[in-house]
Design a protein that fits this description.
Layout (H helix, E strand, L loop, with lengths): L6 H15 L6 H6 L5 E8 L3 E2 L3 H11 L4 E4 L6 E2 L4 E8 H31 L6 E3 L9 H10 L13 E3 L1 H7 L2 H11 L6 E5 L5 H7 L3 E5 L3 H11 L4 E5 L7 H6 L4 E3 L2 H4 L6 E5 L1
Parallel strand pairs: 6-11, 7-8, 8-9, 9-10, 10-11
Antiparallel strand pairs: 1-5, 1-12, 2-4, 3-5
Helix pairs in contact: 1-3, 3-4, 4-5, 6-7, 7-8
């Protein structure tokens, strides 16, 4: 089971999503076409194979649209699904249900798309020591939801935000003078509980950043042979993370080099939407 997101985050984000869809005039289509007392039952069904995620937000959307709406949740985040499978039944006032339809499906589609793509990456490296992790390349304001979806797909956590750990990248190195100098500066200015990661783009810098005290070294766009050499050189003394342009076609070969972590920005910035539909029954 994937732990739920804090309810206040879900409630506020869904409220803001409704604000994009509903102004003072309300849903003029439903108000003009559907009688006020009309009631019906609908099902949310998957239209492709994948991994479900976003149920908490979908439930919140229907709850905000109409407190009398009755919901039967039939799937949990992280569950596999297939075309035609019902993940939720929704019964109640038709105007209220249709008011929430697109908001609920948008959360489900976005989060299930991320979970489904993540599962494909995770499945591609089964049998290796590597873990698939997200990056901070997330939709502004939706990071908690998108990282939740990565977890639902079997991915592992990386930094959530800038306060979680030191991650020295190319611009930090440019300001500090060298990767090793940046690591030494970080070590001198953060407490012993804070982990320090440093990105390098050439194998020759590995020894110096290890000596400077890095806990993690991010190997940026390394060719496979250099990844293998880095694993041998590190000999398990630090965590090695491969990053940069990782795809489903390359991830298995990267994992086979023996790196510990593979970070994939595409999980959140390029996941296709998962197709769900709300159908009357």
């Amino acid at each position: 089971m994937i732990p739920p997101l804090p309810s206040e985050i879900v409630r506020d984000t869904v409220r803001r999503a409704f604000a994009e869809d509903v102004t003072g005039a309300g849903d003029v289509t439903s108000l003009s076409v559907i009688p006020s007392g009309a009631n019906a039952t609908f099902e949310i069904r998957a239209r492709e194979n994948g991994v479900v995620c976003g149920m908490q937000a979908a439930v919140e959307a229907f709850s905000q649209a109409g407190p009398e709406i009755s919901l039967d949740v039939l799937a949990n985040d992280g569950d596999p699904t297939e075309p035609g499978e019902t993940v939720m039944t929704v019964a109640g006032n038709v105007r209220d249900i249709l008011l929430a339809e697109r908001t609920a499906l948008n959360f489900l589609g976005r989060m299930s798309g991320i979970a489904t793509l993540t599962r494909r990456y995770v499945d591609a490296i089964v049998g290796t020591r590597a873990k698939i992790v997200h990056t901070r390349k997330t939709t502004p304001g939706l990071r908690a939801f998108e990282i939740q979806a990565v977890r639902a797909g079997g991915g592992s956590p990386h930094r959530y935000n800038l306060s979680d750990a030191v991650l020295i990248k190319d611009n930090h190195v440019a300001a500090a003078g060298s990767p090793a100098a940046a690591v030494r500066a970080a070590r001198a200015n953060v407490g012993h509980m804070v982990r320090v990661s440093c990105e390098i783009d050439r194998l020759e810098d590995l020894a110096s950043v290890m000596k400077a005290g890095a806990d993690i070294v991010l190997l940026d766009n390394f060719p496979l042979q250099d990844l293998e050499a880095a694993v041998v050189q590190a000999a398990g003394r630090i965590v090695l993370e491969a990053s940069g342009g990782v795809t489903l076609d390359t991830v298995a070969d990267i994992a086979a080099t023996g790196v510990d972590i593979i970070s994939v920005g595409a999980l959140t910035h390029s996941a296709p939407n998962f197709d769900f539909g709300l159908d009357a029954v």
